[in-house]
Design a protein that fits this description.
two-stranded antiparallel sheet, 13 helices, Endonuclease/exonuclease/phosphatase domain-containing protein, extended, 364 residues, 4-stranded mixed sheet, alpha+beta, Endo/exonu/phosph_ase_sf
Length: 364
């Protein structure tokens, strides 16, 4: 056990011998010997500090332990990730901490082993319409979309969408993650600016600061409302309450509107209730499809005698779909509707149409 109880090592003494060599504030370095094979290796059990400055002492300590020949295993909780993509929470990790951790691994000559077994399910990406109103969004999408690719039009479109999805995930962490907390902080800043402005209402600097705080609060308020609207798939939120009761009320209303309470069968009898409605449907289709009737053959001359396309109309039936027609079709789709399998809704394609038009239409 560690001196302050932060690290515990438990082993079976009948199989393994554990010889502690170094006891550090953030690790215990041991030599392990297996009785059955008479083999040994060094093992370091780590529990890193939450403080980045204190972890620097850990990296120096690990580098000083590097053995010259024998195998060495380092395991435990390092309280830092090797890459931004490994971060599960919405908070953005410190890049300096990541660099220090990777430098320690390289200096020690260690190899990061791939994990196996249970893997946490990744969060499903979903495009947020409020991103399109944030500064830097267009330039970010443009830069990700302009990557050179070779292949079919559909191949290039799919890979560019994946690239945009990756950069938007990072964009979300930096600007729109945890929107409610951001809104509360903006509200607190607005309250402070209001109090300061009341004490000195003629100060131009305080007036400008108040306007900036108000603009930030309103932008975050609209962004949060937009995200909640997408989450609930509601056209309009009448009562703002974190969207919980609104969402379930909307679902109940939708389920009720799709319920058939009564039906008139083929005999003209009105049937009520779920059981009678089911019987009405069955009896109707049994009457419609259950028997055989004589059908008169269709005369081809009757078809030709009706209205037909002229030769001038034929080219219009086979001409390619234009970009403007595709754009018009996209506008019909509600931007708050459910996104596709890739997580992008029509809001992304409409907001970035000037960037993606050529590739998007070329793949259709």
């Amino acid at each position: 056990m560690h001196t302050n109880g932060r690290i515990w090592i438990v082993w079976n003494p009948r199989n393994v011998s554990v010889l502690p060599l170094v006891s550090h504030s953030q690790f215990i370095h041991c030599r392990l010997t297996h009785y059955g094979t008479n083999t040994s290796c060094f093992s370091t059990f780590v529990y890193a500090s939450n403080d980045p400055a204190t972890r620097l002492d850990l990296w120096d300590g690990l580098c000083s332990l590097k053995p010259s020949v024998q195998e060495w295993v380092v395991l435990g909780d390092f309280n830092v990730v090797r890459d931004i993509s490994e971060r599960i929470s919405n908070t953005l990790p410190n890049l300096t901490d990541i660099v220090d951790f990777n430098s320690c691994i390289i200096d020690c000559g260690l190899v990061d082993l791939s994990s196996s077994g249970y893997q946490p399910r990744p969060r499903r990406f979903s495009f947020l319409n409020c991103w399109a109103d944030l500064p830097g969004y267009t330039a970010l999408v443009q830069e990700a979309w302009d990557i050179p690719l070779y292949g079919s039009a559909m191949f290039k479109l799919l890979h560019k969408i994946r690239k945009v999805r990756d950069v938007l995930c990072l964009f979300h962490r930096m600007h729109t993650s945890d929107p409610h907390s951001r809104l509360l902080r903006a509200k607190a800043s607005l309250d402070v600016s209001c109090q300061a402005l009341q004490s000195s209402p003629t100060c131009s600097f305080l007036l400008q600061s108040h306007r900036q705080a108000l603009d930030m609060y309103l932008k975050l308020k609209l962004a949060e409302l937009s995200m909640l609207t997408q989450k609930a798939k509601a056209e309009k939120i009448l009562h703002y309450d974190s969207n919980s009761s609104v969402f379930y009320a909307r679902m109940k209303e939708r389920q009720h509107s799709q319920t058939i309470g009564e039906i008139c069968d083929h005999q003209g009898t009105l049937r009520f209730g779920s059981e009678q409605v089911i019987e009405g449907f069955l009896s109707y289709y049994q009457h419609l499809l259950g028997g055989s009737i004589d059908v008169q053959a269709l005369d081809a001359s009757d078809i030709c005698s009706g209205p037909c396309l002229t030769s001038a109309d034929w080219p219009d039936m086979i001409k390619p779909v234009s970009n403007s027609e595709i754009h018009t079709a996209l506008k019909i789709i509600d931007i708050n509707s459910s996104p596709g399998a890739d997580g992008f809704s029509s809001g992304f394609f409409l907001s970035s149409w000037s960037i993606i038009e050529s590739d998007f239409c070329g793949a259709i």
